[in-house]
Design a protein that fits this description.
The chain contains eight helices and nine strands. It is of the alpha+beta class. It folds into two domains: 96 residues, Phage tail protein beta-alpha-beta fold (3-Layer(bab) Sandwich), CATH 3.55.50.30; 101 residues, 2-Layer Sandwich (Fusion Protein Consisting Of Minor Coat Protein, Glycine Rich Linker, Tola, And A His Tag, Chain: A, Domain 2), CATH 3.30.1150. Helix 1 runs antiparallel to helix 3 and helix 5 packs across helix 8.
């Protein structure tokens, strides 16, 4: 199958999702080395280095250049530095997942973050959809032993029907194993999530970090704890 990223540049990108606001509880500094480059590439590199999932509309990053980020930094500090000058802000969806949006008019995105307003979720209707999509996709991939053990970053392009079913799944970054590629596309193509917001641009680009196996193990352990009497 010939794979091309054409047509996905202006889509929503989900690198690798739940309740907006608070930063990660475990926000320890670690070595970060992200050279100045196209912002899309820099965000992908950030996701690989930190294991964080980053969601954004591809149009926000198009033609943007990132600044270099080096040294010991927490993921939050590294991401804020990475977005310097782009007039973009990051909002937490969970402990290690964020959505990037355009900074509101009159807001300096390079200033230290301030508490978000109570109606932030209402102003950003994509939050619930991002969370549902991430959860259902992870569940589908974790259910396949071959896929969850792939141990590498996966990049998928998805189209979703108004009812929330994935109508097309295309793996953009081959694993090198055609059968594994087909299994990933099959599993992703069976996902049914929440209906997407009407203003959501499609297709959706999703990058899932190489830590899928660990995430699947964490989910399995949580499920076992819930089932205990």
């Amino acid at each position: 199958m010939t794979r091309s990223a054409a047509g996905l540049v202006a889509c929503v990108a989900l690198l690798g999702a739940g309740t907006p606001a608070a930063p990660a509880a475990d926000d320890q500094a670690a070595p970060i080395d992200i050279p100045s480059q196209a912002l899309t590439g820099a965000l992908e590199r950030f996701s690989v280095l930190t294991g964080w999932q980053v969601a954004y509309r591809g149009t926000l990053a198009a033609d943007q250049q990132s600044v270099a980020v080096q040294g010991e930094r927490s993921p939050d500090a590294a991401l804020q530095r990475l977005l310097t000058g782009a007039h973009l802000v990051a909002h937490h969806l969970g402990p290690d997942s964020v959505v990037i949006e355009r900074a509101p008019a009159g807001i300096d995105p390079d200033a230290p973050p301030a508490p978000e307003p109570q109606d932030e979720a209402a102003a950003l209707p994509f939050y619930p959809f991002y969370g549902a999509l991430q959860s259902r996709l992870t569940q589908a991939l974790c259910a396949d032993a071959r896929v969850r053990g792939a141990g590498r970053q996966l990049t998928l392009g998805l189209r979703i029907t108004p009812a929330g079913a994935v109508s097309r799944a295309l793996l953009l970054s081959s694993t090198g194993d055609p059968r594994l590629d087909a299994a990933i596309e099959r599993d992703a193509g069976q996902v049914v999530t929440a209906p997407p917001p009407g203003e959501l641009t499609q297709p959706i680009l999703i990058v899932i970090s190489a830590g899928l196996k660990e995430e699947c193990a964490r989910r399995a352990a949580e499920s076992q704890r819930r089932e205990r009497p």
